[in-house]
Design goal:
about 220 residues, alpha/beta, Rossmann fold, 5-stranded parallel sheet, 3-stranded antiparallel sheet, 8 strands, about 40% helix, about 20% strand
Amino acid sequence: MRDVFANRTEAGRLLARALAALTLVDPVVLALPRGGVPVAAEVADALHAPLDLLLVRKIGAPGQRELAVAAIAEGPHNEPVIDRETLYFSGATMDYVERQAEVERLEIERRRAAYLRGRPPLPVEGKTAVLVDDGIATGTTVRAALRALRRRRPARLVLAVPVAPAEAVAALRGEVDDLVCLSQPAFFRAVGVPYVDFHQVEDDEVIGILDTHWQRASPATP
């Protein structure tokens, strides 16, 4: 287990080493933006795999936006994934979740247009889909992403993160075929704690990383 990461780039390289041991066939790497993108780019480069995004938005509790009561993933048939216990204790209602889901769907559309600029989602049917984030807190957002990804019928679904609480890892194992997590702190406080550099990843950084990866992956023109 790794206790400290210099930054997301180092975490991605270490994660790629762990994933290499799985001998993944025909992998496609999907990042959860924004923080998962620098991690996933290192994984995709190491695995010589294409890189895409899977856009998911957290639905925060009323007055506590960081406390996820639900999450919604991109896709025409995806409904919010609810954290029933947190929903109950926060006092949020299903009407509130549905209203916020519409707001977050619009933000998903904005981000896909900004980040991918018309690129369609990469096909994952029959392939190994590797979902990557910079860490997991409660698991609600990742669960929504995994369920959306499973509907796209990959042959194998892998979740890879540098850090997560043990209870979240245990709860998510049933959603995937393989799960790689480098650090499960005994006393989990926040995703950013094991990172020396855990700066806020902005849109420009996401776009720059994607452009760099795509340029490397594209065959040179004569």
